[in-house]
Protein: DCC-interacting protein 13-alpha
Organism: Ailuropoda melanoleuca
Amino acid sequence: MPGIDKLPIEETLEDSPQTRSLLGVFEEDATAISNYMNQLYQAMHRIYDAQNELSAATHLTSKLLKEYEKQRFPLGGDDEVMSSTLQQFSKVIDELSSCHAVLSTQLADAMMFPITQFKERDLKEILTLKEVFQIASNDHDAAINRYSRLSKKRENDKVKYEVTEDVYTSRKKQHQTMMHYFCALNTLQYKKKIALLEPLLGYMQAQISFFKMGSENLNEQLEEFLTNIGTSVQNVRREMDNDVETMQQTIEDLEVASDPLYVPDPDPTKFPVNRNLTRKAGYLNARNKTGLVSSTWDRQFYFTQGGNLMSQARGDVAGGLAMDIDNCSVMAVDCEDRRYCFQITSFDGKKSSILQAESKKDHEEWICTINNISKQIYLSENPEEIAARVNQSALEAVTPSPSFQQRHESLRPAAQSRPPTARTSSSGSLGSESTNLAALSLDSLVAPDTPIQFDIISPVCEDQPGQAKAFGQGGRRTNPFGECGGGTKSETEDSILHQLFIVRFLGSMEVKSDDNPDVVYETMRQILAARAIHNIFRMTESHLLVSCDCLKLIDPQTQVTRLTFPLPSVVLYATHQENKRLFGFVLRTSGGRSESNLSSVCYIFESNNEGEKICDSVGLAKQIALHAELDRRASEKQKEIERVKEKQQKELSKQKQIEKDLEEQSRLIAASSRPNQASSEGQFVVLSSSQSEESDLGEEGKKRESEA
């Protein structure tokens, strides 16, 4: 007999939508078998009940056997051997339909008993198991729903124990019921053949013994055919017994092995978290908003397929796209007092989804898996190996190793002659083998034991007065587009550049150098590594406003300025070469951990856009500010030149006035040197006393000049 498709008992605990879909096919097949066997039973019962209608009932039986090949059994439609066998039976029964008489006793024992047993015992057993399984499945869903609603803030050990025990009991009951139900459905395929063949065989044997007409109607060829059918029935029964024994053993083994898995939140020491996954599947609770403040949680089966997150409801044949998780961001969140929640945000920031896992292990594995897929590790040949290498590198990257320092120690003298760069463009590379890295040791980039700040703290704290003075007051509501509100004028209102970007703050730390882009690269490496080791997935989202005066971090909800970075204090900025969404800048401020008056702090962010665009915007802002400063200096210089010219003009005018006065004095002196003579008209020239004195002074001056 050909092989029969079976329900996988090993997958009953997972209870995936594919298993449920396959179960639906088997249930549909069982319904078709029940309908067909009821018809066949009625036909044979007519043979048993109606002696006068025996011929017609036999003809109907023959007709039904001929129609077997037209039946659309989902699992047995291609059984040609079975169809040909039944076709042969239908021919023989049709030939004997006119010869049959009352066969009450023999037909009751040989024909009606097997099919009645199949109908009353086997088919009813399937229906009973189906009802029990449906009840167990509903109880399990209800228990999972109550467990998911457990409060994280107000934990009650008694309630938690009762709910956990309820989940354990319902899951165990569902698993055991489902395994027995699968076993019964698999066995039904064998019993179906037996229930079809055995009554027919008994019917034919009853006909032979009753009429004793073997020599006329039942020849040797037909006896050989019946013998072969009897042998086939025994083989099917033997195969069924072996398969049932195997399935029973599998059920026992799975019951023992699956007992720890019935607990919804298993012990992490026995089931460690796998952070190197690039594919994962399982049930999650998805949050759906139904109003402004109300929401519902739907439990669905989620699985990753390439760079996509797929969802599939129970009973669906295939899953649908839930979200594109290439270059996405994922982080743990607190949502509606539920545990193990995390949020996925698409690469453009336009779509986000909040999901809830069943356990802490699933929660961390989902976050790590989506992070690995977001980095497109799944596109490589050995994704899990590369993911393991990346995670191992992250673990080793928190503190520089001595071997790393020694590897660059030999390169240090060769690169000391290179001048340091004051700033870098957005084309900087975090992982490239730059010779600038050889010029600086790791200790010269980041101070040892430097603390890392993972969240934004208002700069007006008492312990950081220098930063508060440099950054300006925080907490003031700011219009991100530079428009004025009321009578107060915005600081950046006159700025010709206003660009807004969505960013997430990763961390900041104090650095020892601010004249080389490797400072930004090393800070990125240490902050990302520290986040990976300490399982810090939460990031503060802000709006970064780039203007010609400063950089501002603005709260997207309240439009309150969280931090202000003066643009002249931003001395260095760079992006990550492999992950273009990462960028950072170095801010030079007064005060800090060092003993000197100035300190440098490196800030690292993740953006929805490419970090190069933000760095280009900052560079453009600095260029505009530089040109504005140059124009201001040129204007001041021009004003100074005009003031000098005006002063020179005044001095020149004063000098001319002095020369004019001197000429007038010389003329008067020359006139006073002439002898006092009378005019032709008898008139005299009379000099005043002042003119006389001036003439005397003029003569004395001339004498001095002649003597000189």
Summary: Confidence is low (pLDDT under 50) at residues 397-441, 459-493, 677-695. The CA atoms of residues 498 and 687 lie 81 Å apart. The first helix runs from residue 17 to 49. Residues 10-221 form a domain with the Substrate Binding Domain Of Dnak; Chain:A; Domain 2 fold (CATH 1.20.1270.60).
